Structure prediction request, 225 residues.
Amino acid sequence: GQNIDQPTEMTATEGAIVQINCTYQTSGFNGLFWYQQHAGEAPTFLSYNVLDGLEEKGRFSSFLSRSKGYSYLLLKELQMKDSASYLCAVRSFSGGYNKLIFGAGTRLAVHP
Amino acid sequence: DAGVTQSPTHLIKTRGQQVTLRCSPKSGHDTVSWYQQALGQGPQFIFQYYEEEERQRGNFPDRFSGHQFPNYSSELNVNALLLGDSALYLCASSLEFGGEEAFFGQGTRLTVV
Prediction:
């Protein structure tokens, strides 16, 4: 079966660093995505990993280990506007097609 | 460049009724996927359309159906609405070949009463 796990909630302080972990068990792995979603809004793309290692984009970095079925999203210099849900999604290739499978999301609350 | 647009943004329906939700993909995108997102949950895959055909389907009953038009826009239809169908319905567009991430529309908030 397909399974993606991530913590339900996290809290952090403005200016700090937070790491959101994601573990997955999926067939046909074809990339891992992180999306940010503010309440009532559409998910917006943050990062994409298909090979092992770290991808850095400004204050956001994402890491992937395919052998361990593990990824994390690292947010640095946290700002209040970073309070949102963070969705880990695996692109699964099956039957000749790709589809995205999402975790339940991690709600991050950033406090002053 | 217009992103993914969905209509309507909010909708209230009564149990047993039928609803149609619409999606226009990002310019140049040819693949449309629909997701249902219940409150506090991640998006759940409903189905995907490419070249006007449904080619993948998640674990949703036949009450959920869809269509893709030649201009790549898409509709999601839900028949015999249940209270449990209340959710945010998201449309995502992507490229079949090339490109990486899927782009999401702002969603349609459906409330069934």
